[in-house]
């Protein structure tokens, strides 16, 4: 099994440059209409409209699997689980960027992905309307992962705080500038409504997965994922994946490409991994304001989240 220290031997490459030890300033965010996006080299080089068009027109394979997640919803955790199901092994994914390629990058390195065995797993934080049309219309597989928005926002704050370019916001400032505006990556409410509707009326081949279910009911949730992507699985294998992908084990072994946005190039991807941490951040007034916004935004969306455990 690859050791966690192997990460530095397989640097993330963008435009044939090793940037795992370089700086990537992600703020100010890039705007397009009412949406904002974390700034990445491809956006700066091509412009946001051309960048999104490149992603939308990407021709994926029928065997490709998209893991679509709202930021800080357990993306890397779920990616590791699905990677183990696909590879039929208990090895951590320490192979580097090609084996944990974000769709936003993959659009420019798709020829390189021929080196990766099928089925290939591509991850994205983009909303449904920015996904490759070829993939969605042809009914290729999409795993849609989401998390209760309060814990997700608390996790986003602690993750983004101190990152290169991000303003030194207090929690209250973050609440006003990020949570109430809700436009990052197209906005969580839009992201959730789109995927939930598409899954319900089956306009795309989507398996909805909730962070809280993966946390509280890992066996049945992983079994559903295995059946959805049509891979062999035994009860013992699923139990071994659950152990390998415990929070502590993932924190030790997960390949973390987000070090490039940290001033010290340290991994800050994993913090608590609990349900209900939002209570340590939201004031009573903020919680009431958010609940009011949630009721209005989600009044026609039938989805429930677990907020405490």
TrEMBL record:
Determine the domain of life of the protein's source: Eukaryota
Annotated GO MF terms: sulfotransferase activity
Give the matching SUPFAM superfamilies.
P-loop containing nucleoside triphosphate hydrolases
The record's listing under Pfam families reads: Sulfotransfer_1
Question: What Enzyme Commission number does this protein have?
Answer: 2.8.2.-
Which leading EC class covers this enzyme?
A: transferase
Q: Which residues form the Sulfotransferase domain?
A: 63-301
| Cross-referenced Gene3D superfamilies | P-loop containing nucleotide triphosphate hydrolases (3.40.50.300)
What family does this chain come from, according to its entry? Answer: Belongs to the sulfotransferase 1 family.
Q: Does the keyword tRNA processing apply?
A: no
- Its recorded name reads SULT1
Tell me the keywords, alphabetical order.
Transferase
* Record-linked InterPro entries: P-loop_NTPase (IPR027417), Sulfotransferase_dom (IPR000863)
Tagged with keyword ATP-binding: no
């Amino acid at each position: 099994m690859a050791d966690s220290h192997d990460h530095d031997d397989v640097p993330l490459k963008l435009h044939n440059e090793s940037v795992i030890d370089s700086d990537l300033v992600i703020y100010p965010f890039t705007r397009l209409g009412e949406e904002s996006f974390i700034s990445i080299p491809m956006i700066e080089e091509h412009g946001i409209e051309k960048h999104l068009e490149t992603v939308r027109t990407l021709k994926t394979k029928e065997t490709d699997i998209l893991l679509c997640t709202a930021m800080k919803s357990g993306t890397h955790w779920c990616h590791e689980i699905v990677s183990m199901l696909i590879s039929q092994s208990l090895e951590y994914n320490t192979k580097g960027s090609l084996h944990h390629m974000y769709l936003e990058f993959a659009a420019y390195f798709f020829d390189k992905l021929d080196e990766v065995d099928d089925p290939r797993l591509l991850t994205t934080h983009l909303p449904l309307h920015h996904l490759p049309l070829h993939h969605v219309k042809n009914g290729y597989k999409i795993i849609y992962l989401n998390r209760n928005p309060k814990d997700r926002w608390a996790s986003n704050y602690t993750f983004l705080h101190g990152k290169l370019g991000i303003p030194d916001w207090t929690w209250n400032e973050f609440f006003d500038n990020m949570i109430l505006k809700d436009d990052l990556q197209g906005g969580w409410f839009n992201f959730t409504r789109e995927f939930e509707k598409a899954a319900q009326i089956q306009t795309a081949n989507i398996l909805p997965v909730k962070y809280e279910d993966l946390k509280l009911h890992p066996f049945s949730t992983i079994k559903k994922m295995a059946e959805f992507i049509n891979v062999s699985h035994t009860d013992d294998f699923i139990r071994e994946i659950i152990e390998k992908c415990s929070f502590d084990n993932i924190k030790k072994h997960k390949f973390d490409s987000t070090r490039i946005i940290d001033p010290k190039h340290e991994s800050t991807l994993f913090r608590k991994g609990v349900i209900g941490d939002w209570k340590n951040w939201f004031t009573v007034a903020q919680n009431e304001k958010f609940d009011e916004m949630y009721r209005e935004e989600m009044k026609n969306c039938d989805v429930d989240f677990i907020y405490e455990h």
